[in-house]
């Protein structure tokens, strides 16, 4: 979700986001990707949920490509939906604490 939130932040209103490859068209290629059908299905579902929460409209999915469009004005849409909140930043000052 964090990646799509960042894409939404920099994508112009009315702009398009195109995803090609996994997990799009997973039903056809899942064996070649060496991942389970369930894993790929869950990944695509998660992408769809985040895109919907960002008020993006799925324009087309064909073969290995899916296209979403960011609305030109999605303030009203975001007010009516549960929008994913940005994760909090770390409070600690120790750069080695993650290790």
From TrEMBL:
Highest taxon, organism lineage: Eukaryota
Main localization of the protein described in the UniProt heading: membrane
Pfam (any one): Methyltransf_29
EC class: transferase
Enzyme nomenclature, EC number: 2.1.1.-
Molecular functions (GO terms): methyltransferase activity
UniProt KW Glycoprotein keyword: yes
Localization, UniProt: Membrane
InterPro entries tied to this protein: Put_SAM_MeTrfase
This protein's UniProt keywords: Glycoprotein, Methyltransferase, Signal-anchor, Transferase, Transmembrane
GO BP annotation list: methylation
One GO cellular component term: trans-Golgi network
Glycoprotein as UniProt keyword: yes
Membrane topology classification: Single-pass type II membrane protein
Family indicated by similarity: Belongs to the methyltransferase superfamily.
Name of the protein in question: Methyltransferase
Phylogenetic classification of the source organism: Eukaryota, Viridiplantae, Streptophyta, Embryophyta, Tracheophyta
């Amino acid at each position: 979700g964090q990646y799509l939130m960042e894409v939404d932040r920099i994508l112009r209103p009315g702009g398009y986001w195109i995803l090609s490859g996994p997990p799009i068209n997973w039903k056809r290629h899942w064996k070649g990707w060496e991942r389970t059908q369930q894993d790929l299905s869950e990944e695509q579902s998660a992408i769809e949920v985040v895109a919907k929460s960002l008020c993006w409209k799925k324009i087309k999915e064909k073969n290995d490509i899916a296209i979403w469009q960011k609305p030109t004005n999605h303030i009203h849409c975001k007010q009516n939906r549960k929008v994913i909140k940005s994760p909090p930043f770390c409070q600690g000052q120790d750069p080695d604490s993650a290790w």
